[in-house]
Design a protein that fits this description.
Elements: H1 18-49, H2 51-58, H3 62-88, H4 95-115, H5 120-136, H6 142-163, H7 168-232, H8 242-258, E1 263-270, H9 273-280, H10 282-299, E2 305-310, E3 313-319, H11 323-338, E4 355-361, H12 369-385, E5 391-393
Parallel strand pairs: 4-5
Antiparallel strand pairs: 1-3, 1-4, 2-3
Helix pairs in contact: 1-3, 2-3, 3-4, 4-5, 4-6, 5-6, 5-7, 6-7, 9-10, 10-11
The chain binds guanosine-5'-triphosphate (GTP).
């Protein structure tokens, strides 16, 4: 958890780190734009409405027209600036745009003193309300508001002394009231600024932790996936391994039995693989196995299952396939392997590799996958015994 007391400046209420402060201001930009626009529209409306009291104080005179002209300029400027803030106010880059209406409004309030010197007490109240509104109603940075409020207070006191002939005691009384209003507004806004930033810091930290957590979860899931694949795959050929084959083939076999669909299986064994190893080396033998795995996998349908059963032996499960349909598939694999041209180290073309395949179809009463594999093995043995390089189907009579 971040150390909050050191995070925010005690006097300005801003983050000490400029990067973080800029990030915060960017984050609250839309809200500030919207609230500022509404607040300035409201402030301009109220300031404009005081034209009614102008009429009662000064009557139809030159001062009234001057007051009306000044109010129109201030209201118009504030409305224009409210629109500009809504459109361009960024709060982090164009701070002056947010400060400008404060200074315009403050100038308008100060200018009332020479034009309506008789209503100083009402104006004093208006200044206090305006000061509080600067601090609490219109979103702005504390430093910006404090400067504008200082300008309003000093300007008003000076105007009162010069144009309303206020005594020094009255000016002092008004100065104390303004100091009080400023102190209350400053402390309240400082508290709000600090609280909002602390809240933002906590939220960002939580968001960072969540993101980190999500990253870790994704990493963990991908590791689990990798581990699962490693546990299910044969490291050399990338095909399913024996254990995974038994699990999946069993469920395929059971599904086929449930709907009484045909189910075939064949065992494929590389001929004279020992000789290949002994003649060309173990790594060439590995390449032969990988190539056979590749061509076999490419020749099968997506819902067939091929696995390396062990050594140079492969097994294929063919759901929804009868023996008569499995036979051409096995012959296709047999041909594809025979057509393989496996170059040796140095580019020399290798001798043809052949395979023997034993095929079997599950009987309707058969419910044991191991027995089915055993029968396919027997057909394979027959093929090996009869000279290899062939496809042998296990007929009922051979079972
Ligand atoms: N290169 C390589 N050889 C392997 C691998 N697994 C098993 N072998 C070898 O495969 C050979 C299998 O030999 P055998 O069981 O006698 O079979 P074969 O020579 O193919 O003879 P037949 O099957 O009767 O045609 C052995 O020499 C094993 O060492 C492997 O992953 N890579």
């Amino acid at each position: 958890m971040a150390k909050m007391p050191h995070l925010v400046h005690w006097l300005t209420g801003q983050f000490r780190e400029t990067e973080r402060e800029a990030w915060y201001r960017r984050a609250i930009k839309p809200r500030v734009r919207c609230e500022s626009r509404l607040a300035w529209m409201l402030a301009a409306l109220i300031f404009g409405m005081f034209s009614i009291s102008d009429y009662f104080y000064v009557g139809q005179s030159r001062e009234l027209y001057l007051l009306l002209a000044m109010r129109v300029v201030v209201v118009g400027s504030c409305l224009f600036l409210a629109w500009a803030i809504g459109r361009w106010g960024s709060y982090s880059q164009r701070l002056w745009l947010h400060a400008l209406p404060l200074w315009v409004m403050a100038t308008g309030i100060i200018l009332i003193v020479p034009l309506r010197p008789d209503s100083l007490s009402t104006q004093m109240m208006a200044v206090i309300v305006a000061t509080m509104a600067f601090y609490l109603l219109i979103p702005n940075l504390l430093t910006v508001v404090a400067m504008a409020s200082l300008y309003l207070g000093i300007g008003f006191l000076c105007a009162s002394a010069i144009f309303a002939d206020s005594s020094s005691v009255d000016v002092l009384r008004m100065a104390l009231l303004l100091i009080m209003a400023n102190a209350v507004g400053f402390c309240t806004l400082l508290r709000v600024e600090r609280l909002q930033r602390k809240q933002f810091a906590i939220l960002s930290e939580e968001r960072d932790q969540n993101r980190q957590l999500l990253r870790e979860m994704a990493h963990r899931q991908s590791l689990e996936g990798q581990l699962r694949r490693l546990a299910e795959r044969d490291a050399l050929t990338g095909l399913a391994n024996r254990r995974h084959f038994m699990k999946r083939a069993q469920s395929m076999f059971e599904s086929a039995r449930e709907v009484q669909a045909p189910f075939s299986l064949f065992m494929l064994d590389v001929d004279h693989f020992k000789t290949i190893n002994d003649t060309w080396g173990h790594s060439h033998g590995d390449r032969v196995l990988m190539e056979i795995a590749r061509v076999c996998a490419e020749s099968l349908r997506s819902h067939d299952l091929i696995a390396r059963f062990g050594g140079e032996e492969f097994v294929v499960a063919l759901p929804d396939t009868s023996l008569s349909d499995a036979l051409p598939v096995a012959q296709r694999l047999h041909r594809a392997v025979a057509d393989l041209a496996l170059p040796f180290e140095g580019g020399e073309r290798g001798a043809a590799v052949t395979v023997t395949i034993g095929i079997v179809e599950a009987r309707p009463d058969e419910d044991n996958l191991e027995v089915l594999i055993h029968r396919a093995d027997k057909a394979l043995y027959v093929g090996k015994r009869d000279g290899r390089d062939q496809v042998v189907a296990c007929r009922e009579s051979q079972a």
